[in-house]
Backbone:
């Protein structure tokens, strides 16, 4: 059963979570693993709110997608990109340590979600850290040993900026119906079939051709301009806007 946005907000509550692990992903992205005081159920694609409170009472709050699969247990992973002058990302990258306790509210989001029972085929398009909720979907699929056809197109500036790059390539290597294409905009492609330019209609057409049939759902996540471009590219390739779900961050 899908969770509506209203129902997701009703279920979400503020609680403390302890930082259990910290793992660098790229030069600008680090994963923070959190164990909430009260475990909660969530679906792949959902996110959490993080709230920081200063000694003078000032509060800063940001939302982060959950990278882990729902099958992962009571530990969740947030992949946080370091942003210039970012209040919350600055705390994570410059101050947070294992053992620290932070406030989170979860689960949030009932529109940008997928579970294996929903079926497919699926096309996923992620720009930069927008790949994070899509990775949650792929990890969910792998944990359930599902073979729903999925094609992922991920775009980053360079090869080293591709978050979860090695994990995605390993999942592609399973040959279980998951297809992967990587587009780098300021680097050389490192694999046959990858791209050295910004995502465009022709690239999207080639990724769609990797699926055995037209996608039943499409998920696009990234910055506002990236999402607009990718969503229009999907529609230009014949997909109905009714099956395209988007999630945006930043400006």
Residues:
């Amino acid at each position: 059963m899908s969770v509506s946005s209203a129902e997701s907000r009703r279920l979400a509550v503020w609680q403390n979570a302890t930082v259990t692990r910290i793992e660098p992903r790229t030069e600008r992205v680090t994963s923070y693993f959190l164990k909430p005081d009260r475990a909660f159920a969530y679906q792949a694609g959902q996110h959490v709110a993080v709230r920081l409170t200063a000694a003078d009472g000032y509060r800063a709050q940001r939302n982060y997608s959950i990278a882990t699969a729902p099958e992962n247990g009571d530990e969740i992973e947030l992949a946080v990109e370091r942003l210039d002058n970012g209040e919350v990302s600055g705390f994570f990258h410059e101050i947070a340590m294992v053992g620290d306790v932070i406030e989170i509210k979860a689960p949030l989001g009932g529109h940008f979600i997928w579970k294996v029972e929903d079926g497919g085929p699926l096309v996923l398009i992620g720009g930069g850290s927008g790949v994070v909720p899509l990775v949650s979907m792929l990890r969910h699929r792998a944990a359930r040993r599902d073979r729903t056809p999925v094609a992922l197109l991920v775009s980053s500036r360079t090869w080293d900026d591709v978050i979860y790059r090695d994990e995605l390539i390993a999942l592609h290597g399973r040959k279980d119906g998951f297809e992967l294409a990587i587009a780098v905009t300021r680097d050389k492609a490192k694999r046959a079939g990858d791209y050295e330019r910004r995502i465009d209609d022709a690239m999207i057409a080639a990724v769609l051709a990797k699926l055995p049939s037209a996608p039943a759902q499409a998920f696009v996540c990234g910055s506002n301009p990236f999402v607009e471009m990718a969503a229009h590219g999907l529609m230009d390739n014949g997909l109905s806007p009714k099956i395209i779900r988007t999630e945006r961050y930043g400006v």
